[in-house]
UniProtKB/TrEMBL annotation:
NCBIfam families: ZapE. The keyword DNA repair does not apply. Keywords: ATP-binding, Cell cycle, Cell division, Nucleotide-binding. This is Cell division protein ZapE. SUPFAM superfamilies: P-loop containing nucleoside triphosphate hydrolases.
Length: 327
């Protein structure tokens, strides 16, 4: 059994943050060759070739003496959850090797906060390709910050590849007063060529239905095995307030199985968004979940599933049910 999850306070040295910008374990073997497009949705094969071509072009522009004057470019993969956007993004990063940085949107915003804008920009400008997964503009501060960062990186010749569930010119809608920041949002959108991927969620090929909740005894048994731990749902949700989302990967480090006792619907949006971030990091690390309480597909109330963050919540539900499925 691994140490308790609740109460962990991972510390990340600022100097190590850039070194950790690599694809997560779940996508350690992601390659263009093992991305299998659904033949019923030609956009998947088209997206694979677009990302492959974009990545090759980015690394070629990284030849010393050419990049500063070449100008960077952007490619934006838009589509629903479970169509392989992150797989393709990780494949591009792997193909570029040490010339690529890979991180989630929140990890890049945290990097700027930890290093300062100029130092973060200069560090990222050493890469040929910067990959941004789960790109979203959830608040005005992030909008201003990321718009400036990406403009300055592309001006320096860095190529930027991003994935999102929202088209770039629609970022922020339903989350904050996006119209007040339309100029910044449009400046982000202009950086990218957009490739849309269609298709169903490959994890389910149908409706999201969570497995039946486990018994308390099953949760305790699962959480007592080697590489496993367990936590009370309410305590875990409360503990997330004390850890920055950019550290959730370190927060769950070493956990292979997570038992959750007394899962219940979330009460507010702020709680829910932190749970989404945690689910993403658990999924990145292929953690198996055994949970009691309500079914995992009932943790987000209906009003949340109809709101501005609904795509994030449905992605989290898809990943949760995948991690909780019998193995």
């Amino acid at each position: 059994m691994t140490p308790d999850l609740v109460g962990r306070r991972p510390a990340l040295e600022a100097s190590a943050l850039v070194d950790q910008l690599v694809p997560p374990p779940h996508f350690a073997d992601a390659a263009f060759e093992n991305y299998l497009p659904d033949p019923d949705f030609p956009s998947q094969a088209q997206a694979r070739e677009a990302m492959r071509t974009f990545g090759v072009g980015a690394t070629r522009r990284a030849i010393p003496g050419l990049r500063p004057g070449s100008g960077g470019k952007g490619l934006y993969l838009d589509g629903g959850f479970g169509v392989g956007k992150t797989h393709l993004l990780a494949a591009a990063a792997h193909a570029a090797g040490t010339r690529a940085a890979f991180g989630t949107f929140v990890e890049y915003t945290y990097l700027v906060g930890a290093l300062g804008f100029a130092a973060a920009r200069d560090a990222l400008a050493t890469f040929a390709l910067v990959c941004i997964d789960e790109f979203e503009l959830d608040d005005p501060g992030d909008t201003l910050l990321m718009a400036r960062l990406m403009r300055e990186l592309t001006d320096a010749g860095v190529a930027i590849a991003a994935t999102s569930n929202t088209l770039p010119d629609s970022l922020g809608e339903g989350r904050f007063a996006a119209e007040d920041f339309r100029r910044e949002i449009q400046s982000v959108a202009r950086l990218f060529s957009v490739v849309t991927i269609d298709g169903p969620d490959y994890r389910h090929r149908g409706d999201i239905t969570a497995p039946a909740p486990a018994s308390e005894d099953d949760v305790e048994e699962a959480g007592s095995a080697a590489g496993a731990t367990s936590a009370d749902w309410h305590e875990l949700v409360g503990d997330l307030w004390h850890v920055h989302p950019s550290r959730y990967g370190a927060y769950v480090k070493g956990i292979e199985v997570l038992g959750l006792r007394g899962v219940a619907p979330l009460e507010d949006q702020a709680q829910a968004l932190r749970v989404v971030a945690l689910v993403d990091r658990l999924y990145d690390r292929d953690v198996r979940i055994v949970a009691s309480g309500v079914p995992l597909d009932q943790i987000f109330p209906e009003d949340m599933l109809r709101g501005g963050y609904r795509k994030k919540y449905f992605r989290a539900l898809s990943r949760l049910t995948s991690m909780a499925a019998p193995r």
